[in-house]
Design a protein that fits this description.
elongated, 348 residues
């Protein structure tokens, strides 16, 4: 599936801005970003629910830009599931096939296969109201898969579930996608879902793709401050390069290996993940003096916000048991490993 220069305007608002994207056969690709970034509009363009203001959409090499939604050969699962409450599970899954006039024997066989795939073959006679949220989500998935679509489009299908069920369904969804090897585009604002499910992630911001790559690459090597802030927690420090691998910030000079040589005098943004920062027992290289500003206990770890002498803040995840007992207002030393820094594109 390919988008070439796709734009979608709503009056003076540009929801999608000259977007280029290729989704490989059998790939699970996540469109990730905050509300209003254009990810759902992008999915609606692919599905054929809204036309692009400009650009072309190709599926299997065929231009489908002007083709109606029901002729694109796509399966769509919405956040709301959109199940018919008066129909049974089996009737919900069969509905579209009956509308298309398939023979009754074919419908029965395909519905049975779809329900078995999502492990609901024993729930065929039940109504949606009798099912849990996770089971309703699987019915919606079976209804999309029963068409044997070329591409599966998922619009935040797990958002309505509670945390534990969402995590369970995330694993099931990935297993089902792998078993049928179907090309899948998954829209989400949840970083954990995108990281845990996807082969690749397209991080969207203001209608454009800010970064596209494998989950680990995007997490460990964000290209911009927006990506560093949005994918997981991170601290971004302002500094100035004083050598090819040295940055002055907060009154000290830090050694960094951010993947590219620095130009002395250049303003630099340094990102570091909170799990890489350590509470130090004494002075040393890449150690900063700070004061604990807040503590948030989270069970296996405590989220610590520490304020540096120049007012910048560093986020630290301290795992239990903590190396030292911490309290708000306490002076601490923080060790920031030189190989944990990510040099971001452009100054603040």
């Amino acid at each position: 599936m390919e988008l070439r220069g796709c734009t979608r305007d709503y009056g003076a608002v540009r929801a999608v801005d000259r977007l280029d994207l290729s989704v490989h056969e059998g790939e699970f690709l996540a469109l990730l970003g905050p509300s209003g970034c254009g990810k759902t509009t992008t999915l609606n363009l692919i599905a054929g629910f809204v036309p692009p203001t400009a650009g072309r959409i190709l599926i299997d090499g065929a231009d489908v830009t002007d083709r109606p939604a029901h002729l694109r050969g796509l399966g769509v699962v919405f956040q709301s599931y959109a199940l018919f409450p008066h129909l049974s599970v089996r009737e919900n899954v069969a509905f579209g096939l009956r509308e298309r006039g398939l023979p009754a024997a074919d419908i029965e066989r395909r519905v049975g296969e779809a329900l078995e795939l999502v492990r609901l073959d024993r729930a065929g006679r039940q109504r949606p109201a009798e099912l849990s949220g996770g089971m309703q989500q699987r019915v919606a998935l079976a209804r999309a898969l029963v068409y044997r679509p070329r591409v599966l489009l998922l619009d935040e299908p797990l958002a309505a579930l509670d945390k534990k069920l969402r995590e369970e369904m995330r694993d099931e969804l990935r297993a089902i996608q792998r078993s049928v090897a179907i090309t899948t585009l998954f829209v989400t604002h949840d970083q954990a879902e995108a990281l845990g499910l996807s082969d690749r992630i397209a991080v969207m911001n203001k209608g454009r793709i800010e970064q596209l790559g494998a989950p680990r690459a995007i997490y460990e090597h964000p290209a911009t401050r927006f990506v560093a802030d949005f994918i997981g927690a991170s601290t971004v420090l302002r500094g100035r390069a004083v050598a090819a691998d040295r940055v002055a910030t907060a009154g000290v000079v830090l050694r960094v290996t951010g993947g590219r040589a620095l130009t002395p005098g250049q303003d630099i943004d340094l990102a570091i993940r909170p799990e890489r920062v350590r509470v130090a027992s004494g002075p040393g290289d890449n150690v900063l003096d700070a004061r604990v500003e807040s503590l948030v206990y989270q069970g296996a770890q405590t989220e610590v916000t520490a304020r540096l002498d120049d007012g910048q803040r560093v986020l630290v995840f301290v795992t239990e048991p903590a190396p030292v007992r911490l309290a708000v207002g306490q002076a601490v030393r923080l060790h920031l490993p030189f190989d944990a820094f990510m040099v971001l594109a452009g100054p603040l």
